[in-house]
Amino acid sequence: MSEKQPSTRKWWLMGAMLVIVAVLITGAYFSGWLDVALGDSDSLGLIEVGSPVQSVAFSPDGALLAAGAQDGAARVWRVDDNVEPGQALVQATMISPQGRETSYSHDVAFSPDGAALAFGLPDGTVRLWRVANGTLLHTLKGEDGRICSLAFSPDGRILAAGDWNGRVILWQVADGTVLQTLEEHTDGVVSLAFSPDGATVVSASLDGTTMAWDVASATPIHELESPSVVTGIAFSPSGSLLAVDRQLWSVEDWQPIQELGDTRGGMGNVAFSPDGDLLAAGNAWYEVRWWRVTDGALLHVVKGHTDSVNSVAFSPDGEILASGALDGTVWLWRVP
Fold this sequence. Notes:
Blueprint lengths: L28 E6 L1 E2 L5 E6 L4 E6 L5 E6 L4 E5 L10 E5 L14 E3 L5 E5 L4 E6 L5 E6 L5 E6 L5 E6 L3 E6 L5 E6 L5 E6 L5 E6 L4 E5 L4 E6 L8 E3 L5 E4 L2 E4 L4 E5 L10 E3 L5 E5 L4 E6 L5 E6 L5 E6 L5 E6 L3 E6 L2
Antiparallel strand pairs: 1-7, 2-3, 3-30, 4-5, 5-6, 8-9, 9-10, 10-11, 12-13, 13-14, 14-15, 16-17, 17-18, 18-19, 20-21, 21-22, 22-23, 24-25, 25-26, 26-27, 28-29, 29-30
């Protein structure tokens, strides 16, 4: 393991922002320019959000990066390294009128075709926007309980949301109707993941349970035992593995097969690289770490954040890792 120190290498994230002009809960507005700071030798760029970041996500084509923050705003930036340095990023903001100091909320997720962006809110709703022009497509209403986690099915037809009261709600994206409500957990569902074939959805709750569900029948098929409360789950691209915080599980028999090395500081959410070779996570020590999947060996540690790292996401080409933290920043890291 090696920890690289800052250098003068500069990479700029810039370009014109995707303008989102929609009629939102309180109306859309533009809140100015973002500073793009220089990072260290592993860093490609730093975005100052100004509010604790609770979720980051790349669009499927890698052209856009979204972040959900504790101030109730979802921000979207265009990722472009082929323009001249010195330009700033334009920021578009969607405001939630409630729960701006609420943790475990404000999750963002792009639909698999990149056409829609979902944003989970503390008022128990999910806003679904058309990415191209900012049109509000649906306001998906669950039951009483803030939205803690989101995941689209691989075909984009279903949006799953976990709420603070332990429910997993499955919505039909086309018309916003509720298909099923999965109820086994007794506390907030803070992470969700669909299997690549869309047949299974896994949910992790603060009550210490992690459940695998059959989507078609809306019934639980397995409860995964974990030594601690799970805050991050992810299927490998092949669907053969499930990352459950620091453990890798075989999906074939729902058994743990690998433990990640050196996972100090707890875990935020977890993310597989697109080729399935790496698994990344942030921690409470302000670090971003990634491991080799085949043997669980820690390969790399990068530092830049000054508070707990809640969310990580690989770009679709696997060359960039984005991380969002409670310090109100989003960092972009080069993946060796």
